[in-house]
Design brief:
This protein is of the alpha/beta class. It has two domains: 6-120, Response regulator (Rossmann fold); 129-252, Arc Repressor Mutant, subunit A. Helices cover 55% and strands 11% of the residues. It has helices at 15-22, 39-46, 62-72, 86-95, 107-118, 130-144, 151-165, 173-185, 189-206, 209-216, 229-254, and strands at residues 6-11, 28-34, 50-54, 78-83, 99-102. Strand 3 (50-54), helix 3 (62-72) and strand 4 (78-83) form a beta-alpha-beta unit. The relative contact order is 0.11.
């Protein structure tokens, strides 16, 4: 699953050559393109995994697009920025692009870079909200009554935080999500999976019944009992993503300067 296909949106003054180039990849699926102002609207509607962003667009500043995505999207795409010179590449990386290349780069090298960027586990644009994601995940874990002493609580919070901004990690828990958590916590993917399973079982046996019903409702099969790790994390991360979206809107209202066009 490490090479799973990534949904891709192209923003360029002339998207057709780039669509033809990415069409050569088995890892990338183009779901839309634009040459100007509809980029942000399309990105929020389509939620692509990957954005190929040209530095030259009609009627909109490409660096402004990056800045807006940074503060507006709970699950932003990975971004490969195509710039006119080295200075623009540096600006794009500072604004949250995951990778940058000159617009006249060799096509084979550009395709290779696009594939690598599309497969990146977590987008750079999500970095400003990392603390908020963890706080929301920890709030839900405490609400459910997951014991603090359980290692699985830490892993659940990390998993939810990651899934909020990178839902495609759910394509493979054992191949993508658990190894990512294990590398961050200096343990093994098997230990992560087991600890989360133990925490879920404990929560269903002795956690807050009101909280379980409030968060999960009738989505859990009463005959089978507790959800699987994947079901538990998917439902919890969905709730956390909605909570983060509300939080982002509130913060934007409090600090409108973040939403203004950057120079």
């Amino acid at each position: 699953m490490l090479n799973a296909e990534r949904s891709t949106y192209i923003a360029a003054i002339d998207p057709l050559p780039l669509e033809a180039l990415l069409g050569e990849s088995a890892q990338i699926s183009v779901i839309g393109s634009s040459d100007g102002k509809s980029i942000l609207e399309d990105a929020q509607r389509l939620c692509p995994d990957f954005l190929l962003l040209d530095g030259v667009l009609r009627g909109v500043d490409s660096l402004y697009i990056l800045e807006q995505m940074r503060w507006m999207m709970p699950a932003p795409p990975r971004v490969l920025y195509l710039g006119r010179d080295e200075n623009w590449l540096a600006y794009a990386l500072q604004r949250g692009a995951d990778a940058a290349a000159l617009r006249n780069s060799d096509s084979k090298e550009l395709l290779r870079l696009a594939e690598c960027t599309a497969q990146k586990p977590l987008p750079e644009l999500a970095a400003p909200w990392e603390e908020a994601r963890m706080e929301i995940a920890q709030k839900f874990a405490a609400f459910l009554g997951i014991p603090d002493v359980m290692k699985g609580k830490q892993y659940i919070c990390l998993a939810v935080s990651m899934l909020v901004c990178a839902p495609q990690l759910a394509a493979s828990y054992t191949g993508l999500l658990y190894p990512l958590i294990a590398s961050r916590c200096a343990t093994s993917p098997q230990a992560v999976e087991k600890a989360i399973r133990t925490a879920v079982e404990s929560t269903w046996l002795s956690g807050s019944l009101n909280a379980i019903q409030s968060l999960f409702g009738y989505s859990v099969d009463a005959e089978r009992g507790k959800p699987t790790n994947a079901e538990f994390l998917a439902m919890l991360s969905g709730d956390a993503r909605r909570e983060l979206a509300h939080h982002m809107v509130d913060q934007a209202r409090k600090t409108p300067e973040k939403m203004e066009k950057m120079p």
